[in-house]
Amino acid sequence: MMNSDKYPSKLLQDAVESIGTLPGVGRRSALKLALHLLRQPVENVRHFTSSIDRLRNEVKYCSVCRMISDGDICGICSDAKRDRKTICVVESVQDVMSIEKTRQYTGVYHVLGGIISPIDGTGPSDLTIDELTARVSSLASEFPPEDVEVIFALSGDVEGETTEFYIYRKLAPYHIKVSALARGLGFGDDLDYADELTLGRSIANRQIFKP
Amino acid sequence: MMNSDKYPSKLLQDAVESIGTLPGVGRRSALKLALHLLRQPVENVRHFTSSIDRLRNEVKYCSVCRMISDGDICGICSDAKRDRKTICVVESVQDVMSIEKTRQYTGVYHVLGGIISPIDGTGPSDLTIDELTARVSSLASEFPPEDVEVIFALSGDVEGETTEFYIYRKLAPYHIKVSALARGLGFGDDLDYADELTLGRSIANRQIFKP
């Protein structure tokens, strides 16, 4: 009775299918969102779609750290107050934003653009590891290598550890300092509720008590 | 340190703000969706935005029932097997789709485009009530009025009832049949869990037992 058995309009069906490709958006929500957009003024919808098109087509990546940026070099890399000898290695743009929110970090970043994952078919050459190695090589000739530090801030799973180990070996020839995010119980966490792995590592990696 | 204190790119910020205007999408999810779109191939993003633009700019509304449609008359109104003397009055496009899914209804529809709501500032003139009256007037002159039926399928709240009553009075001069969706306990519902209003009306509107 209806086109395509379900949708009263091919245009609606196309929009619902497109919106349904977004992660976490099912068919039902996609329909709700399409009908919501249909009720908005034409200029609002045009602004909605053009802001997405512009993001995808015009965004740049910092030539130093691969963070997204409006210019050739991002705001962090071009900030003279940041310590460019300290590089925090993260998987994604979102990780940079999370760490920046803490206001605890004054070094710079390197965005890998993913993590080594044989299952997903992501190998070292798909990531910005060569660019990181080049940065470290250049810093290690400009400064005493022991003043240069790379901090791993990757996920704590097997893939994160594989990626860390791969990069660690790549950077070994430069004799710089390599560190990783502290892992342990969260602040305020109760011992009762901690999983065994976290608790075990928390004991093994215990820190000097500084009251 | 970053543009706008939070976002590494104005383009990202614009896209996140646009996506965040969607109902049920918070800032955090909007950022996730923007970064997701950024990782997709350019042509996929172009297809995504153009399907939304086309929906908003090119969709038509059926000149008879106001359902969205690719042509001047929708698939339901142009289907000779549907009984055009029976008109189910609904608030929205989505309601038509819900009722169609039941495969229980063989009449046609009338989409009001909203509901009378003084709080939201929606009055009768914002809805397609005049068009409905014209349809009924024309049917009541073409057929015996008692063969023409309008079925109210609006929400069961005060606004729905206000709208039903308003339309009921508008249609009174044509002496057609007017009905409303059956309301009562849901099929399989337990008496224990029914709210008092539903249970009370369910008793008052009890139906002849047909085993």
Structure keywords:
homodimer; 211 residues; alpha/beta; 4-stranded parallel beta sheet; 7 helices; 6 strands; globular
Structure commentary:
The structure is a homodimer of 211-residue chains. Chain A has 211 residues and is an alpha/beta fold. In chain A, 41% of the residues lie in helices and 12% in strands. Chain A has a four-stranded parallel β-sheet with strand order 4-3-5-6. In chain A, strands 1-2 form a two-stranded antiparallel sheet. In chain A, helix 4 links the parallel strand 3 (83-90) and strand 4 (107-111). Chain A is globular, with a radius of gyration of 23 Å. Chains A and B meet through helix 1, helix 2, helix 3, strand 2 and helix 4 of A and helix 1, helix 2, helix 3, strand 2 and helix 4 of B.
Quaternary structure annotation: homodimer
Number of extended strands of chain A: 6
Query: Percent range for helical residues of chain A?
Result: 40-55%
Q: State the largest interface.
A: A-B, 64 and 64 residues
State the shape of chain A. globular
How many helical stretches of chain A? 7
User: Whole-number average pLDDT of chain A?
Assistant: 91
Order of helices and strands of chain A: HHHEEEHEHEHEH
Question: What profile does the largest beta sheet of chain A have?
Answer: 4 strands, parallel
| Strands in their spatial order, largest beta sheet of chain A | 4-3-5-6
* CA gyration radius of chain A, whole angstroms: 23 Å
The structural class of chain A is alpha/beta
Between the first and last Cα atoms of chain A, what is the distance in angstroms?
A: 74 Å
Strand content of chain A: 5-15%
| Unreliable residue runs of chain A | none
